Known about the structure:
Number of domains: 3
Strand order of the largest sheet: 8-4-1-2-3-14
Order of helices and strands: EEEHEEHEEHEHEEEHHHEHEEH
CATH superfamily of the largest domain: ATPase, nucleotide binding domain
Radius of gyration: 20 Å
CATH class of the largest domain: Alpha Beta
Amino acid sequence: MPALALDIGTYTIKAISGKPGSKPDITRVVEVFNTSGISIPADDAQFEKIGKQLQMLISDNNLPTTDVRLALPETVISTKIISLPSLSDAELASAIGWQAEQHIPIPPEELSLEYEVLYRPPKKDRTSMMRVMLIGARKSVIERYLNMFTALGIEPTLLETQILSVMRSAQFEVTDPTTLLVHIGASAVDMALVHEGQVEFVISHLSGGQVLTRALEQSIGLDATQAESYKRTYGLDEAQFQGKVRQVLLPAVHILVTEMQKAIRFFLSQRPTESVKRIVISGGTAQLPGLVQYITQELGVEVLVAAPFTPATGEIPQVNHPALTVAMGLLLREI
């Protein structure tokens, strides 16, 4: 049965249809400009506007609606990794509500909570702690998001966070080097530190590729379309456009790199004998000319651009793979 993976970003809406699983077979990839500029509706007008665009996207491209998979942006999610004495599943289920109150800044009556055991030590090990990932969101946000699809006659089969989809796209193995995963969306940057195949922590910042576009609008006097084009074409290449675009973009890019550095330092403060061996960047801004070289130069760590279509077959697009990382992660999940 074909599935539809949807990534509703604030700049574009990405859709991938095909046979899901660890080796997906792609039938169609579509990306359209998000005319509303938001990913989750806050009022009835936005609800109707996004709903109509989604309806057109699906009908115009003959996309399937029997297995629809969605990802919530990290900006409306609270993801925490906690350590606990080793508990059975029943004991953990009884304790998880109290743990959520301590770590998730959402009142219990408003909280929709999911959790996953990342590591449980062997029974013989009485000293090691178990690690649990808590994922919390406001019930009202989830209901509003899902209602947008219910109104279209669609009942989604999967709803998860964007960073989990990005991690799945990265195809992490236990033997992989410690990696900082950085997903640069249009309006936010999400980071996850992955050590021995497990996520150590997740951080989200309200700053993304649109910050770079606005900087060009204000400094060079371009309209939004021109600024986006200049950003994608010239980026941080000092040999292009007399280096003017690079000069404007550098302050915002430096802030991004500083946040990466802080994330690495935090991990090292928790595990001083370890080291971060590489950074993997995804999202449309990952393709910014000169970005990989700049991060490498500043942090002295190998930097790779996400390649989410590596395990896939079928109608694979020729360009823009990093921007489709979230959607591909949804399609890769086996249900």
